[in-house]
Amino acid sequence: MSSFLRPPLLHHFFMVRLLGTAASRTLTAERLGTASPGGHDLRDPALAAVLTFEDPQAFKVKSIWELLRALGVFRLCSFPVLVNNCGKLMSFARTVLGKRGFSMVLRPSVYAQFVAGETENEIAESMEKMSSLGLHPMLAVPIEEDLGESTGERRYDDNLATMLECVRMSHSNAWSRDPMMQLKITALVNPDLCVKLTSLLNEEQYDLDVLVRAMNGEHIIFPGLNEKENTHFLCSLHRLNQIGEASVNKVRVLVDAEYTYMNPALSLITMAMMKKFNKDGAWIWNTYQCYLKESRALLLDAIRLSVDHSFCFGVKLVRGAYMDKERKLALQKDKTDPIHQSWEHTNDSYNGCLDIMLNLISQEPARYMIIVATHNEESVRHAVTRMGELGIDKDGGSVCFGQLLGMCDHVSLTLAQQGFSVYKSVPYGSVDDTLPYLVRRAQENRTVLQGIRKERDLLRQELHRRIKERITGAR
Ligand SMILES: Cc1cc2nc3c(=O)[nH]c(=O)nc-3n(C[C@H](O)[C@H](O)[C@H](O)COP(=O)(O)OP(=O)(O)OC[C@H]3O[C@@H](n4cnc5c(N)ncnc54)[C@H](O)[C@@H]3O)c2cc1C
Ligand SMILES: *[C@@H]1O[C@H](CO)[C@@H](O)[C@H](O)[C@H]1NC(C)=O
Ligand SMILES: *[C@@H]1O[C@H](CO)[C@@H](O)[C@H](O)[C@H]1NC(C)=O
Q1: Where does the signal sequence lie (predicted)?
Q2: What residues are paired with 135 via a beta bridge?
Q3: Whether pLDDT at 337 is above 90
């Protein structure tokens, strides 16, 4: 390994310590006076004006049909009854209309709004269009799976084949520039085992090096697992190793965060992958959910681990998608709620974690990377402002932004037009495979719907402008 990758340890130790204290504020205050070389400073009135995200021009690249479709779909999403019962409504519609009829209704509407397509050609078409708008792809295979559904090694091997196909598609096409993809570990490791590992981790730590050796094919016996579990874990690590081998230097693999009762196991496995594959750059990334009270501590621990084991560290920073279920579970099991008590607390947590990463990136842009995965305009502005203050390049690759396909295009397109690196998370697959994913997305309703209200206004303005243009143009 080249020596420049080895971090100056002492300096790091200070950084990490500083980050936990008010001293980080002085550290950044010093830098406030310096002019930003990237020139993307919110004190620049032009940029500040654009980043209010109020210009319907962002939509000028959309066809009239796409504008109408987005308006229609978002209109439907604005009825809480529809959203809250959409799972039931969809299975009802499917029984009434039959599989084909159902698909005929959904394909041009909801599906086309949120899903890239099913065949490689359809996906390529969507991706080329995105690429021409300056947006990067982040493919996601929607495999919705929770406890108790899984049967046998076969299922996970099938999922592995699908994931490897996703790796290949992500990097081997003309539309793929600096591609990313999302990986759900529970598609390759039995979720029940992840839960068991999580409880074992409360008692003893697993050594990352031992996991890496297991990934390399060594027959390790893990304490606390029975023979069957041990065999499955070894097979699973082998599967994850294949993903790593296939993607390193080609596609950045962003591991999803899921539920708190399994996240520690997912993080452990992800860190082992990082240790093996992130020697020369961040190819494997982990996700941190800022709605968790412990998110800041988890992030700082992970940073420390990456320093101790000298690997590069990539972070997908999200607020978190499983709030309702986490709270329900905590209530059922009479545990303290792991989620911050209000949206405002989550917001502070998000922006705080963001600052930690941006500070590190401004010091060592080759070692640390982050994707600011949010639809929240204020957090996006916060990131852009801090990048300017710290002198982080907008297209340097260490900081990028991420939104879901079909959501908050006014944010994504505006950022891309300003030269920032923006990814759209793109699910693909058949109507049947992607449906549970769409249902879950619709139910992440609350604040997302508020964001959509603005997008609807902007869509409407752009539509009016087009119609007026047609009328005056025709004269
Ligand atoms: C590219 C991408 C990848 C993603 N990957 C993951 C992933 O791996 N794992 C995952 O869990 N999610 C993931 N998400 C979803 C994400 O966690 C959020 O659910 C979603 O983006 C909405 O948050 P926001 O910041 O965009 O919107 P905002 O509207 O600013 O915030 C909504 C979020 O705030 C939090 N919140 C809302 N109300 C409260 C409350 N009363 N108390 C405390 N917190 C509250 C919730 O987390 C809610 O989702 C991903 C999102 C994107 C764009
Ligand atoms: C969100 O958090 C940031 C940083 O902590 C804060 O400045 C901002 O006011 C918060 N926004 C809201 C709406 O509370
Ligand atoms: C969002 O969904 C939850 C259940 O998933 C429901 O309790 C809540 O009322 C919904 N909120 C809105 C604004 O629709």
Answers
A1: 1-23
A2: 422
A3: yes
| Interacting residues of 116 by C-beta distance below 8 A, sequence separation 6+ | 122, 123, 126, 127, 139, 405, 426, 427, 428
Closest ligand 2 atom, residue 352 Cα: 5
pLDDT band (50, 70, 90) for residue 107:
confident
Q: In the block, which residue shows the tokens 């799972």?
A: 87
Residues β-bridged to residue 424: 137, 403
Listing DSSP states for 183-248 in one string gives: E-GGGTS-HHHHHHHHHHHHH-PPPHHHHHHHHTT-----TT--HHHHHHHHHHHHHHHHHHHHHT
Cα separation, 88 vs 318, whole angstroms: 28
User: What are residue 136's DSSP bridge partners?
Assistant: 423
Domain that holds residue 462: 3-474
The domain that holds 436 is classified in CATH as 3.20.20.220
Cα 99 to Cα 61, 107, 111, 137: the distances in Å are 33, 12, 14, 30
- Report yes or no: 343 and 447 within 8 Å, Cβ to Cβ: yes
What is the rounded CA–CA span in Å between residue 222 and residue 232?
Answer: 11
Ligand 1 first shell, C-beta below 6 A: 256-257, 287, 289, 291, 318-323, 339-340, 342-343, 346, 373-376, 402-404, 425, 444, 446-448, 451
Per-residue pLDDT of 276-324, as tens digits, reads: 999 999 999 999 999 999 999 999 999 999 999 999 999 999 999 899 8
Report pTM.
Answer: 0.86
Res 30 pLDDT > 50? no
Coil, helix or strand for 400? strand
Which ligand 1 atom is at minimum distance from the Cα of 320? 17
* CB-based contact 317:289 (threshold 8 Å): no
Burial class (CB in 10 A: 0-12, 13-18, 19+), 313: buried
The helix or strand, by DSSP H or E, that contains position 267, with its residue range, turns out to be helix 263-277
When the pLDDT of each residue in the chain is averaged and rounded to a whole number, the result is 85
